[in-house]
Each structure stands twice: as structure tokens, then as C-alpha cells.
Specification:
alpha/beta, 7 strands, five-stranded parallel sheet, single chain, 6 helices, elongated
């Protein structure tokens, strides 16, 4: 619902807290302060306009329901260790995998194998519906995108509120 005049004044006076979260999770929170107002998820929807790179289109033609792995803006002191875990896991599963590198500083050759495609970015609303499962850091937006895509999630929280969102996904059976 729109912000009322009174809520707007509270916002200006730094007395109003806007919770930018999907309505999917509204019933999951208790003890929300009276000065907090849910305003819905802030999304950048690109599925209708984004054009995938040719290498992604070709990869999806060969692996039509890949695992998608991405940790968004998370970083690591040892990103190549994470890359090795991803490679070993995908090798055991013998499937296709799209790795969204995000802010993770993987080595240029970290994913040089036929069944793993590494990209710096792809819109979640475009890619997630094409996935068999999404493995992610449990950020609020990423959780919402996975739920909206209707695909299973494996949440691997790194920090901040990600542990809360991972717990919410688990509690909801998502």
C-alpha cells in the first residue's frame, strides 16, 4: 500500500523503516517494529528485454536444465577453493552448470570444462526459470527470484541477513 502522509513525515524524520522484501515472506516475520512498513520487493525485471550471449544460448541448448550457482556480491579470500568445490560437485553430478561469477574473483581458467559455463552476470528472472536448481547466497532478492521462478534452492549464506533468509526459505519448504 502507498505510504501515508504521516508515514512520509516519519520517513523524512528517519522514524520510518521501509522493509523492501517480497510479500512472499510477509508472514514469516514476527516482532516487526510499529515504524516498519513493508513496501514490497525492489526488482529489476529484464527477462523480456535481455539478450543472452551466444555462448549461453548454445550451452542451454546442450544442457537445457542446468544447475545455476551464484553468490551475488559475496567475495572470498579463496575464490579458487570455492571454484574447486563447484567443479568437484558438478563432476560428481555429471550435469551442466551455469556459474554467475558476480563479485567473486575466480581465476580466468577456474571453470575450463565443457559442462560448466561461467558468466559475470545474467538476470535472475531470465535464467532461473531455465534451471533445475539454484544454489545461492540467500540474499533477499535472490531468494525471491528463485521462489518466483519455481525452482528448488540450496541456500549457502555468507553474512548479514542471508542467514535469516536461508532460515525463512527452509521454514517455508522452499
Amino acid at each position: 500500500s502507498p505510504v501515508s502522509a504521516n508515514e512520509y513525515q516519519m520517513l523524512i524524520n528517519k522514524q520510518l523503516l521501509l522493509r523492501a522484501q517480497s510479500k512472499i515472506f510477509d508472514d514469516q516475520f514476527v516482532n516487526v517494529p510499529d515504524n516498519a512498513k513493508g513496501c514490497g520487493q525492489i526488482e529489476l525485471l529484464e527477462a523480456d528485454t535481455w539478450m543472452p550471449p551466444e555462448e549461453l544460448s548454445e550451452f542451454l541448448a546442450f544442457y537445457p536444465k542446468p544447475i545455476v550457482i551464484g553468490f551475488g556480491s559475496m567475495t572470498s579470500k579463496d575464490p579458487n577453493r570455492i571454484a574447486q568445490v563447484v567443479k568437484n560437485s558438478i563432476d560428481q553430478l555429471n550435469c551442466g552448470c551455469v556459474v554467475l561469477a558476480g563479485w567473486m574473483q575466480y581465476a580466468a581458467d577456474a571453470f575450463e570444462q565443457k559442462n560448466i559455463l561461467s558468466l559475470p552476470f545474467a538476470p535472475h528472472d531470465w535464467l532461473y526459470p531455465k534451471a533445475s536448481v539454484v544454489i545461492h547466497h540467500a540474499g533477499a532478492g535472490t531468494c525471491t527470484a528463485a521462489v518466483k521462478a519455481g525452482v528448488p534452492s540450496v541456500c549457502i549464506p555468507f553474512a548479514f541477513d542471508q542467514f535469516v533468509w536461508a532460515d525463512k526459505m527452509y521454514a517455508m519448504g522452499l
